[in-house]
Amino acid sequence: MQRPELQFECVALNGMPVTIRPIRPEDREIERSFVESLSDHSRFLRFFSAMKKLSPKLLDHLINVDFPREMAFIATINVNGVEQEIGVARYAPSETDGSAEFAIVVADEWHGQGIGRELLRHLFDVARSAGIRRIEGSVLATNSNMVRFCHGLGFTSRLDVHDPGLLRVAMDL
Hints:
It is built from 5 helices and 8 strands. It is an alpha+beta fold.
C-alpha cells in the first residue's frame, strides 16, 4: 500500500497557520534541523538519550516510512517562505498484532499550542484505517507534562514491568 499524500491545515492556539503532512524522504534536512534544535531536555524525553545529533542511519529511518506498517506526520510552518518543522508524531509496529508504538515531539516554543493534539488526531485516524486497533508508547515517569497530555487524550498508564522509570501508555483506537 502506498503512503497517503494527506495534508491538513490548522491554526495553532497562537493564531499561526500550521500544515500537517506525512514526512517524506526529501525532508531529511528539516527533520535533522528540527531534532537538533530541540532543547537537550526535550531531545532526552523523546529519544531517552542525551544525543546531540542524529546519526545518518537514524535520520534515514525517521524520514523513510514503510506505510502502512509505519506512518509519520510532521507539523510545519512557513517562515519567510521557508518550511520549518515544529513537530512530528509517528507510529511503528509493536510486538503485539494489531498494535503500534507511537512517539511524538513538539518544538519547545510550540508547547501548549495544540500542535501535539492535531498531529496525533491525524496519525491515529491513519492508524485506524491501516488496521491498527491499539496504540501504545513509553513515557518517562518523570515527564509529567506528557503523562497529563496522554491521560487527557484517553490513554491509560501503568508502570513498565522492565523499567520502573518508564510508564507504558495505551489506548484502543
